[in-house]
Amino acid sequence: MYRIPYLVLCLVAATHQHNITEFVVPDAVEVGGNAELVCEHDADGGVVVKWWWTRPGAEGPHQLYQRVDNAGGHLIAPHVDPPLNITLSGQDNNNIMLWNLQPQHSGEYLCEVTQNIVDERRSANDLVVYSLGSGPLLNTTKFEGETDVQVTCEAVGVAPEPRIHITFDSKTFNTSALHGPIDGLYNVFANATVPEADLDGKEVFCDISFVLAIDVPTAMTEISTIYYSDAWLASSTTTAVPETTEAPTEIPEQRLPGGGTRADSSWVLLAAMAIPAHMLALLRM
pLDDT tens across 223-233, in order? Predict the structure, then answer.
């Protein structure tokens, strides 16, 4: 006796099949930015529209929105920290806007459109909230009396999970330490100890990539040409400045454990230039 109503429902669903005609969830948004989520459909009655959000590693989704037929949309704020700020967007109340996004708001966003209870359509996309943080920062350290140079590359406050690399002369050194996430952000560090003869006059690249494949609009590479050769210092009259940074006005000496001192290539050259000037002042006295 239950077959006839079931068949009627199937015929109704087949007669009024609908589609999601436009669906937009951005692949990536920079931290603090906003995102409009669009879900347009061609259903003409008996429609329920829902938005869902599933965080990475979560057991289940959070419902963010529901609209039944032509009634006004109802926002459902999830109990998460930091809060996910949501408002309606668009005159038809099918779309929502997310504000001040943070790395913890990354995840899958799904739109569900159901007509006449049984005819359901879904579209979903992953949204990644990224942070470029501070970096990449490239530094070189040469200890007094030694011939090796320590090259470091680091970045702070980066999301999603990053990888960092030091590359020169076809050699690559990868992430040495990764800390986080703390509030959704990571700190990452790589280092390499290199004979100064192998590094002298070479371009050194310090760059960041993400474990997830996302496109970001800003270059995430610092490039510097490193000089340590005594012959180069004696013949040069200019200061070696990394290509992506401004020349430092003053770089103080830093005492290290064991009595060593650290200096990058620009500091070494400034010291070499200061000696002749001092001698000239003495001659004029």
Answer: 888 776 543 33
